[in-house]
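wait is this the right file?? whatever heres the structure
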C-alpha cells in the first residue's frame, strides 16, 4: 500500500511530508530498502494488542509508545500540481507518473486562502480553497478520461456487447492506475446495458470519474488551520463528497522535533504533550501556541488523523498481528514483533501468503489467538486480530 501526497505549490505539502515521516524515536530497521528523494516512510497508528495480553511488544518495524503501535507505510510526495496538469503544464507529466502507484491520496490544501491556483501569494483569505479541491479532482478525472478514450473507438467495435469482455478490456487498459475488474464492473452499472458504441463522451467522463474515485480515493488535509481567518474549513467540511480534516502540519513538525530532542513526551495524534526538558523562551512560546491554538481547539494537529483515516476509513484496511496461542514471541524472543496492514475482506489464507508463500501453499488451519479457537482458510479477519498459521512443514 502506498499513500500519495498531493497539492499545489506552497500549500504546506513539504511540511506535511516531513512531519509525517519524522519518527519520535530512532528506528534501526526499515521495511523499504531503497527510498528515493520523493519517497519516505510514514506511520499508521493502531491500538496495540500487547496490553490485552499484559506484555510489552518489541516491534521489528515501526515503534510502539504507551500501547500505541505505529506501523510503517510508504508515502510519495508528488510534484506540485497546477491547473491543466493533464495537458502537461507545470510538472503535470511528472505528477501523473508518480501518482500511478498510489492507492490513496492525501490532498494538502491551504485552507487559509492565501495562495492562488498556482501557489502564488495573494491577500490572506482572498482565494477560495474549494477551487483547489475541485481543480485537482478535475485534473485527475481528465487524466483517467484521456487514458480511457485512447483507442476507445477501436475497442468499442471489437468487444461488441459482451459485458465481461468490456470489463476485462477496461481493467487492462487502466491497470497501471490500479483499477481492477471489480472496480470497472461496479462503475459501469451507471451505463446499464447500453451498447459501448452508443456511450457518449460525457458518459465516458462519468465512468472515468467513478474509476478515479474507486482507485484513488482522496482525503483533504485542511492545512494552515491556525490562520483560517474566513472559516473556510467550516464551510468546506459540509461538502457532501469530501472527507476533510483540520490540520496544522507546521505544529505537528514542531511537536515531533521537540520530542526527537527529548524536550517533550508526545504521541502523534494525541491532544496533549508533556514537557520534560528545559525550554528557551522561543520554544516555550511555540509550544504554547500549538497547545492553545491547535490542540485545545481541534484535539490534534490533524496529521496523524489524516494518515489513519486514509488507510482505515477510505481504504478500509485492517491491522493483523502474527502470534502463537502458546507463545507471542518470535525465535529471537521479540514479543508481537510484527503488525501487517491488509485490505478489507482478507482471509486467514490471505494472511498466510502475506507471511510467506510456503505458509499459504501448505496451509492447514489458523488459530484466533485471542479466542484460542481454530479457523479455516476462508475465515474473514477482523481489525486487530492476532493470528497463528499452522502449515505442513
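ok assuming it is, sequence goes like this
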Amino acid at each position: 500500500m502506498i499513500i500519495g501526497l498531493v497539492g499545489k505549490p506552497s500549500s504546506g505539502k513539504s511540511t506535511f511530508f516531513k512531519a509525517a515521516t519524522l519518527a519520535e524515536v530512532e528506528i534501526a530497521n526499515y521495511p523499504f530498502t531503497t527510498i528515493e528523494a520523493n519517497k519516505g516512510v510514514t506511520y499508521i497508528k493502531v491500538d496495540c494488542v500487547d496490553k490485552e495480553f499484559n506484555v510489552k511488544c518489541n516491534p521489528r518495524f515501526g515503534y510502539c509508545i504507551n500501547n500505541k503501535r505505529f506501523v510503517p507505510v510508504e508515502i510519495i510526495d508528488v510534484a506540485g500540481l497546477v491547473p491543466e496538469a493533464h495537458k502537461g503544464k507545470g510538472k503535470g507529466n511528472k505528477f501523473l507518473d508518480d501518482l500511478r502507484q498510489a492507492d490513496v491520496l492525501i490532498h494538502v490544501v491551504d485552507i487559509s486562502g492565501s495562495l492562488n491556483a498556482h501557489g502564488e501569494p495573494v491577500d490572506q483569505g482572498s482565494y477560495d480553497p474549494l477551487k483547489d479541491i475541485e481543480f485537482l479532482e478535475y485534473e485527475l478525472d481528465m487524466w483517467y478520461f484521456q487514458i480511457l478514450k485512447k483507442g476507445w473507438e477501436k475497442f468499442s467495435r471489437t468487444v461488441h456487447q459482451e459485458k465481461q469482455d468490456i470489463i476485462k478490456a477496461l481493467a487492462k487498459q487502466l491497470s497501471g492506475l490500479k483499477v481492477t475488474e471489480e472496480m470497472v464492473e461496479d462503475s459501469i452499472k451507471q451505463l446499464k446495458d447500453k451498447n459501448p458504441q452508443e456511450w457518449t463522451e460525457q458518459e465516458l467522463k462519468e465512468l472515468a470519474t467513478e474509476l478515479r474515485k474507486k482507485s484513488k480515493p482522496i482525503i483533504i488535509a485542511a492545512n494552515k488551520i491556525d490562520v483560517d481567518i474566513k472559516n473556510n474549513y467550516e464551510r468546506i467540511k459540509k461538502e457532501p463528497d469530501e472527507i476533510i480534516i483540520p490540520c496544522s502540519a507546521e505544529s505537528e513538525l514542531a511537536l515531533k522535533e521537540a520530542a526527537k530532542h527529548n524536550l517533550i513526551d508526545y504521541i502523534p495524534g494525541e491532544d496533549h504533550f508533556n514537557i520534560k526538558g528545559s525550554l528557551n523562551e522561543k520554544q516555550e512560546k511555540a509550544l504554547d501556541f500549538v497547545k492553545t491554538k491547535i490542540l485545545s481547539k481541534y484535539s490534534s494537529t490533524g496529521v496523524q488523523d489524516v494518515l489513519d483515516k486514509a488507510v482505515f476509513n477510505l481504504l478500509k484496511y485492517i491491522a493483523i498481528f502474527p502470534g502463537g496461542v502458546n507463545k507471542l514471541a518470535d525465535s529471537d524472543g521479540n514479543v508481537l514483533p510484527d503488525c501487517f496492514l491488509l485490505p478489507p475482506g482478507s482471509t486467514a489464507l490471505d494472511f498466510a501468503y502475506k507471511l510467506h508463500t510456503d505458509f499459504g501453499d501448505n496451509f492447514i488451519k489458523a488459530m484466533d489467538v485471542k479466542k484460542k479457537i481454530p479457523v479455516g482458510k476462508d475465515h474473514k479477519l477482523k481489525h486487530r486480530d492476532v493470528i497463528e498459521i499452522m502449515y505442513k512443514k
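The chain has 13 helices and 14 strands. so i think its the right one actually
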